[in-house]
Amino acid sequence: QSVLTQPPSASATPGQRVTISCSGGSSNIGSNNIYWYQQLPGTAPKVLIYRNNQRPSGVPDRFSGSKSGTSASLAISGLRSEDEADYYCATWDDSLRGPVFGGGTQLTVL
Amino acid sequence: QVQLVESGGGLVKPGGSLRLSCAASGFTFSDYYMSWIRQAPGKGLEWVSYISGSSTYTNYADSVKGRFTISRDNAKKSLYLQMNSLRAEDTAVYYCARMGVGAPSSWFDPWGQGTLVTVSS
Question: 10 Å Cβ neighbour count for B57?
Fold first, then answer.
């Protein structure tokens, strides 16, 4: 059971917009930055969004992050086939004194 | 460029031990917190342990506390994970990842390619 809750799956057609949610509590999302990771099939995860809504260089602006209270979301607009991957949210948990991950969302591009 | 390369994975019997290594290059290794994160087959990501740049601070997930030990050698730019009393549920791909400078966080960048640990009789 993950500390952060994500939907296990999401799907959309090319060109559409999809949103992936991540919910937690006051000791994690409520008081710390959220990060999003993309894991393409057979590869290591890579950071997609840092500090809630910042994109590393090289990440297309089709990807955006937001946070409100104890929840966060990742939005992908203009969906492309290469976006098919697993997406994980992560943050720090003050009670556990360590990083925590969501269970991951498998995105399918129909 | 910044790179992390893990090694040391393999097949081990329950109750056995294994030592993982992670070789870093392309950045000032001693400045950064480093972490191990694992992923069981077909499952999600689980943080395992982190260590500060000077090795002063370490922390472990409850699932491995007392069995795993994280360490580093800044002269060799290497991170290690000594895993003892291994259980079937420790079977996973183990990734090393760079954390932040000055304080641990959940910002992991970059990640190594991972090394597979299989615990089975």
Answer: 12
Closest-CA residue of chain A to B113: A44
CB environment A66-101: b (16+ within 10 A), e (fewer):
ebeebbbbbebeebeeebebbbbbbbbbeeeebbbb
Q: Which of B35, B50, B107 sits opposite A35 (nearest CB)?
A: B107
Tens of pLDDT, residues B53-98: 999 999 999 999 999 999 999 999 999 999 999 999 999 999 999 9
Identify whether the C-beta of residue A104 lies closer than 8 Å to the C-beta of residue B45.
yes
Query: Strand pairing of B68-73 and B10-12?
Result: unpaired
Q: Please give the DSSP secondary-structure letter assigned to residue A54.
A: B
- Cα nearest neighbour of B36 on chain A: A99
A4 near B CB under 8 A: no
Nearest CB among A33, A44, A101 relative to B47 is that of: A101
